[in-house]
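Give me the 3D structure for Antibiotic biosynthesis monooxygenase.
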Amino acid sequence: MAADEDRSEVFRVMLRMNIHPGMEREFEQTWHKVGSTIVQHPANLGHWLSRSTEEDSVYYVVSDWVDEPRFREFEHSEAHVEHRTKLHPYRSGGSMTTMRVVYGMTGAAAAR
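Predicted structure for Antibiotic biosynthesis monooxygenase (112 residues):
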């Protein structure tokens, strides 16, 4: 993405996931398998898993979508219910935040 490129149409979802201690590696492997199918959805722009460096057993998932209606369609689909079912045994809690990307800037290191 070019510097200052307007990304106002992008709908971003951020999940905070608290994972049962000791289950982190299994969760990561399962998330990767599930995430591989999510990025194949025609409305998905990308999907990332990050592990907190400040809190034990806390992960963040960021997922970008072409727009909110297409995300909501996926969110209520059988495929998404199946994904949640696979991840549920690892979770002890969490939350979801949604947002619209206003601007995005690519750093100099990304161009290399």
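Confidence is low (pLDDT under 50) at residues 1-7. Let me know if you want a second pass.
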